Amino acid sequence: MQSAKSRRKIVPSADGGQSGDKLEQLLLSSAICNGEDLGPFVRKVFSSGKPETLLHLLRYFSRSKESEIEEVCKAHYQDFILAVDDLRSLLSDVDSLKSALSDSNSKLQSVAGPLLASLDAYVEAQNVSKNVDFALTSVVSCMKLMELCSRANYHLSNGSFYMALRCLDSIESEFLDKTPSLTLKRMLERKIPAIRSHIESKVSKEFGDWLVEIRVVSRNLGQLAIGQASSARQREEELRIKQRQAEEQSRLSLRDCVYALVEDDNEDELGSGIGDDKDGYANGSSGSLGFDLTPLYRAYHIHQTLGLEDRFKQYYFENRKLQLTSDFQVSSMTPFLESHQTFFAQIAGFFIVEDRVWRTGGCLISKMEVENLWETAVSKMCSVLEDQFSRMQTANHLLLIKDYVSLLGVTLRRYGYPVDALLDVLSKHRDKYHELLLSDCHKQIAEALAADKFDQMLMKKEYEYSMNVLSFQIQTSDIIPAFPYVAPFSSTVPDCCRIVRSFIEDSVSFMSYGGQLEFYDVVKKYLDRLLSEVLDGALLKLINTSVHGVSPAMQVAANMAVLERACDFFFRHAAQLSGIPLRMAERSRRQFPLNKARDAAEEMLSGLLKTKVDGFMQLIENVNWMADEPSQGGNEYVNEVIIYLETLVSTAQQILPAQVLKRVLQDVLSHISEQIVGFLFGDSVKRFNVNAIMGLDIDIRLLESFTDNLAPLFSEGDANQLKNALAESRQLINLLLSNHPENFLNPVIRERSYNTLDHRKVMTISEKLRDPSDRLFGTFGSRGAKQNPKKKSLDILIKRLKDVS
Questions:
Q1: C-alpha span between 88 and 155 (Å, rounded)
Q2: What local confidence, expressed as pLDDT, does residue 793 receive?
Q3: Residue 459, beta-bridge partner list
Q4: Quick one: residue 359, left, alpha or beta (phi over 0 = left, psi -120 to 50 = alpha)?
Q5: Which residues form the Exocyst complex subunit EXOC6/Sec15 C-terminal domain (predicted)?
Q6: Pairwise CA distance, residues 801 & 397, whole Å
Q7: Chain-centre distance of CA 553, in angstroms?
Q8: Is the CB of residue 602 less than 8 Å from the CB of residue 664?
Q9: In this structure, are residues 515 and 589 in contact, taking their beta carbons and an 8 Å threshold?
């Protein structure tokens, strides 16, 4: 023990006088004292073959240490003896202390025994009290827990799942960890997740049932909303009709009346019950439209309570997206014309519901998600419309679908959905619709013209007059005629007017709800095409193929005059329906679009009359061109012609307007004049005398008298134009009867009095004129006599005209 405590390193001192053995001894002693390895010393002595030296050194070292050991033992022995003495004295003190303690203990035991018994009783009573308090606390806690459990069961049985979940949350947060009953705790830990799973299952089932029901409800909702938009449009149209009637009656001054156009109080019924949130979040229903969002909001709220809000949002969005995709399916078994209302109503109802959910459902669906769904729906609807429109060959079918799509746009625009893409599709097919409409009108007009009997239309009742005349503003007087009334036109006119009016209304209907505000120019363009291409072409075909008599030709010409007035009504009607002032429509009015048919009708009537007149003009061959005296009552041909013309005028003035009658008579009289001049110019007449010319002068005077008798029918200017139709024959007769025919050579006189005469005809006809003295052998008797000045002037005229030729 002492060696371990007092071990220290011994460093041998250097002594130059020591021998080698002494050095070895010192090294060995130092190594042993320092606890170093003696292996090197052993190997060295064995290698040198002197192990005895090492043994010697070791024995020497052992003997040198024995004295030190003895000194240490002696020192320790003295200390040991002192310690034994101290211990013996201590033992005696311990014995005395032990006896004192024993006495004290006996006294303490005798005194503390009763006290300890009382203390044990107190501790036992305190433990009992603590156990009783703990039991009472546990009983109260269990009672509260059982009350919550009973309340949760009650809410579950009544379907109040949110309240049941609130009870479960209270049980978990307040009682589950503090429940003294391990059995009850295990039961709750097992039942609470099961109850939550049951509630989630029940709510999911109700939500699934709602998803199925809302599809049917959406279709009915869409139909109802679109129907309300249609009703609102109808009310607006009725107001516009009243406004147009007021304007028209004010313009025509039929009677003094004032219209007060007051909109109905239920103007905004379209929005009632659709976008209002008066019901609040409590029931989520919209009674007037019959759809209820309560199951949806209940399911959303329950899932929020269960901590499954994000999962329910995703589930709702995916299911609604699948329903929308299913709504996009167009049945190939049912014509789109029959199914388009259901198709668009289903989509409209879907987005009305989604708008309501977005506005009242908290964060159930975001605006971005609704917009994405709408973009998908618009793209699909545009694709379906493009495909269906490309297949349609009936204008009415395209219009029906277009009207419903426009109502869809009006309905959904109220909810903030952009519908420009849908309207662009409608505008894109504007030309196709009008081409189909023109084709349909062409067929209808062809049928109406084919059914015409070229008889004046008989109207027996006032409603017939209103329906066939007043409704197209083709009356010539504001006074209602007596009935029965024979109209100046045939049944073709009101039939064609109805077709054109229907075209205008269909065109305006297509354009007015397509997103354009000013579309009169487009309607006018297609109306011009209908009139100038379709109706004008059909009338031309009718005139060229079916009109073979004067009476049908006259009726067609009368019809054209009435249609000219009707065309003014067409453009006014288009302007009124398009919502532009009539003055703007009148300012942009072009020429009469049926001018080709009108000109052809008048030309056909004139041609037939000319043919008829030519038959009478053949009687001119019976004229005695070398008469001894002029005929006093006119030649036979002119009397026949005048009788025919008077009969014609008496009939024509009943149905033909004055301007048409004037143009026709002017053409016929001009033809008669040309026939007279042509007959004198032709080879049929070799020569004639002044008496024959004077007879022709009487004929022309009779014709001029005929025109003078017609003056009350025309204006002064028109009467003069009618009389000027005989200008060529009148100027020729005046020239031949003139005493100075050579005045024809004077440019001023010729321009004033003979401007319609051709100098070649004048020369040829003048050469045929013979003096009464120019009989056979008359020249021998008159030789040497003074030449007639008129004859001389005529010869000069002939000579000069020949020089010019």
A1: 89
A2: 75
A3: 485
A4: alpha
A5: 422-768
A6: 74
A7: 49
A8: yes
A9: no
**Residues 718/659, Cβ–Cβ less than 8 Å:** yes
| Banded pLDDT at 45 (limits 50, 70, 90) | confident
In whole angstroms, what separates CA 439 from the centre of its chain?
26
**Helix axes 658-681 and 716-724, enclosed angle (nearest 10):** 20
Helix, coil or strand: residue 621: helix
- Burial category of 75 from C-beta neighbours within 10 Å (exposed 0-12, middle 13-18, buried 19 and up): exposed
- HSE, side-chain direction, 13 A CA sphere, residue 535: 28
Per-residue pLDDT of 330-384, as tens digits, reads 777 778 878 888 888 888 888 888 888 888 877 888 888 888 989 988 888 888 8
Please check the confidence at residue 473 and state whether its pLDDT lies above 80. yes
Share of the chain above pLDDT 90, in %: 1
What is the rounded distance in angstroms from the CA atom of residue 431 to the CA atom of residue 541? 26
Q: DSSP alpha helices (H): ranges in 11-50? A: 20-33, 39-48
Phi-psi region at 15: left, alpha or beta (left = phi > 0; alpha = psi -120 to 50): beta
| Type and span of the H or E element at 370 | helix 367-391
Tokens at residue 143, please? 């009672």
> Is 740 a residue whose pLDDT tops 70?
yes
Scored b (16 or more CB within 10 A) or e, 11-26 reads ebeeeeeeeeeeebbb
Matching residue, tokens 């205008």 = 504
Burial class (CB in 10 A: 0-12, 13-18, 19+), 393: exposed
Instruction: Tell me how many degrees the CA angle 90-95-97 measures, rounded to the nearest 5.
Output: 90
Angle at 128 between CA 125 and CA 129, to 5 degrees: 85
Strand partners, 689: 770
- Transcribe 468-513 into DSSP letters: HTGGGT--S-SSPPPSSEE-SS-THHHHHHHHHHHHHHHHHHHHHT
Decide if 469 contacts 475 (C-beta within 8 A): yes
d(CA 709, CA 694): 22
Compute φ and ψ for 709, nearest 5 degrees. Answer: -70, -20
673's tokens: 């004049």
Task: Give me the pLDDT at residue 96, please.
Answer: 86
**Strands 688-689 and 769-770: what pairing?**
parallel
What is the crossing angle of helices 182-252 and 51-158, to 10°? 50
| Exposure letters 152-188 (e unless 16+ CB within 10 A, then b) | beebbeeeebeebbbbbebbeeebbeebeeeebbeeb
Q: Kindly report the pTM of this predicted structure.
A: 0.65
Sequence letter at residue 10: I
Write out the two tokens for 458: 């008989």
Position 796 pLDDT exceeds 70: yes
Tell me the C-alpha to C-alpha distance, in Å, between residue 348 and each of 375, 507, 640, 684, 714: 13, 26, 78, 87, 65
Angstrom CA distances, 171 to 150, 157, 187, 406, 449, stand at 11, 18, 12, 58, 91
Q: Which residues contact 11 (CB under 8 A, 6 or more apart)?
A: 30
Q: Is residue 718 a contact partner of residue 724, using CB atoms and an 8 Å limit?
A: no
Residue 222 pLDDT class (50, 70, 90 cuts):
confident
CB count within 10 Å of CB 327 equals 21
Q: Is the CB of residue 652 less than 8 Å from the CB of residue 718?
A: no
Q: Supply the mean pLDDT for the chain.
A: 78
Out of 423-432, 458-467, 494-503, 616-625, give the one with best mean pLDDT: 494-503
Residue at 388: amino acid letter: Q
Span 25-30, average pLDDT: 77
> Which single residue is written with the structure tokens 């031949």?
736
Please tell me what DSSP assigns to residue 531.
Answer: I
Return phi, psi of residue 308, to 5°: -115, 35
> Please, what's the b/e burial string for 647-667 (b: 16 or more CB within 10 A of its CB; e: otherwise)?
ebbeebeebbbeebbbbbbbb
Q: Say whether 770 sits in a helix, a strand or coil.
A: strand
